Amino acid sequence: MTEINQRRADHPIHSIFLERWSPRAFTSEEIGETDLLALFEAARWAPSASNLQPWRFVYARRGTEYFAPLLATLDEGNQRWARNASALVFILSRTHRTTSTGEVRPSYSHAFDTGAAWFALALQAQLAGWHAHGMGGIDRDRAMRVLEVPAHNRVEAAVAIGRLADPATLPEDLRQREKPSQRKPIGEFVFEGRFNGA
Ligand SMILES: Cc1cc2nc3c(=O)[nH]c(=O)nc-3n(C[C@H](O)[C@H](O)[C@H](O)COP(=O)(O)O)c2cc1C
């Protein structure tokens, strides 16, 4: 079966799923707006319940005035390496929907749908020679303020986008973790007919 990045698929899949991973060593180069917009274009075509498209993105490109304030909303541990990213993207989801009668109601699948959009962005980044590293380690209250996020929107995660650099550029502790991770076997999370696991 396919083996890439020291990851082995037990069943035949496209190589992109093994190729994509979340590095921390980035080159610090700038990313053009057109290159970045292509990643959001991929996210745009994700499926969502009732086609509500609840995902929202706020980005900062390296070399712009927005980069430092957005970087500062990440946890220290993420700032250490994400400061070398080419762009930071914050992923938000709209928690409510407006009905045809103008009523504002909670949405059930806003996070699920937005997860699909984030993964489309991550795969497109990989296909275009970039890497996208998701981060939940964020000061969310601060991010809400800095990004000026309106009500009925939730900060889901942030993403560092960059080109892969030599792991030697990382501090020692991060360098040791700089490799693609493994996965649980399918038997631990896929069940036929009824739920049969933890
Ligand atoms: C929602 C989410 C939050 C994450 N938070 C962090 C984070 O705060 N810091 C970090 O270094 N990696 C973070 N990661 C990266 C995961 O640790 C990584 O995706 C996981 O270990 C699988 O490895 P892979 O992406 O290289 O395949 C996050 C990923 C996701 C999807």
From TrEMBL:
Entry keyword Coiled coil: no
Keyword terms, alphabetized: Oxidoreductase
Keyword Ligase: no
Domain of life: Bacteria
Domain (Nitroreductase): residue spans on this chain: 19-163
PANTHER family: NAD(P)H NITROREDUCTASE YDGI-RELATED, NADH DEHYDROGENASE_NAD(P)H NITROREDUCTASE XCC3605-RELATED
Protein family according to the UniProt entry: Belongs to the nitroreductase family.
The protein's name in its UniProt record: Nitroreductase
Species in which this protein is naturally found: Sinorhizobium kostiense
Source species taxonomy: Bacteria, Pseudomonadati, Pseudomonadota, Alphaproteobacteria, Hyphomicrobiales
